[in-house]
């Protein structure tokens, strides 16, 4: 009987539940879309800056977890508020508090699990559609990209099930501790923020300082490097919440005190409604502002990435094109290249872990090695590698030259030596 009454209550508020359920589905779908990239180690290492990219994705996952937790908490509060009156009615009709707690626990957990499963399925579809569309639009290849990634499915299910399990426990505990009369009149009780002006002013100052530190950390990423990410993650989230928590309440109170403004139309009623649930709105406003900041950052990075490609390429590699095959077709293709500043051909042979080059070829056409600053970053200046300069930096120069060859395995364990043309001809193995 109790389950039938609960089901009837849900049907009466079906529209509200659909909105809540849709939001939870979208939330879990977005979470899966990110985790499908963040947990795919092969995709990260093959398409980004290795360990640095892993750290960036890790902090991104933490931020997404915080945002998701805030939204689920808000949705959970919304769900409980809709059902408080019904639960109080059941208790007045004789239902035991333990049964009500059990009903709340099961209802919250089922809604969460079903929404998460559907959201994961939707997330796979969105990842396939949006991901492939973006890859096709920007004209790049994404190695190891997969719309369906099983570890991401598991991570999404575990994260949301744990959150809803905790939410179910909290809901059941709150319901047991709340008197029946308070439950009956819960929708008529506003959640007023009794913070004083001094506290609100302090929150505003701390919020502004936190935001300033966060955005300074992102602007100073060249100096702070990866340290800027956790600093910004902590300060921007805290600053956004404190600023909204203080400013929204102050603005609403100031508008309500302005009699000419507040008494026009439904303004006073609207402002009172905002005051009614201002604390919950504060959390959502903070999340929305952070999401807008993330979106703006992603758009900015995306728009500027293409313009940065030539500079990034010139810093990371000395030569634009390196070929390992010389035949008629290859010669025809290289002849079509325009804007070539210089070109050189070097013959070599590989015996064991040693790569042999002709010294006279390096004297005529030295290979170029990118100079680096004090931080190890390559700059647009180059050093010439010749038999004479090899002795100055044997390990660095040898690695750089061998890296340009087609020695694919254990490049770091190889060494280079210079020989004459006659000595190279006498060696076994094919000339490359």
Protein described:
With 432 residues, the chain is mainly alpha-helical. It folds into 3 domains: 1-189, no CATH class; 190-316, no CATH class; 328-426, no CATH class. The protein is 70% helix and 6% strand. It is built from 18 helices and 5 strands. The chain has helices at 2-12, 14-38, 41-47, 51-92, 97-138, 150-177, 180-184, 197-219, 221-224, 228-257, 259-262, 267-276, 278-316, 328-335, 359-364, 387-390, 394-403, 421-426; strands spanning 348-351, 354-358, 367-372, 378-385, 415-419. The strands form 2 sheets. A 3-stranded mixed beta sheet has the order 1-2-5. Strands 3-4 form a two-stranded antiparallel ribbon. A hairpin with a 5-residue loop joins β3 (367-372) and β4 (378-385). α2 (14-38) packs antiparallel against α4 (51-92). It is elongated and about 105 Å long. The relative contact order is 0.07.
Protein structure class: mainly alpha
Biggest sheet, spatial arrangement of strands = 1-2-5
Number of separate domains: 3
**What is the helical fraction, as a range of percent?**
over 70%
- Return the average pLDDT rounded to an integer: 75
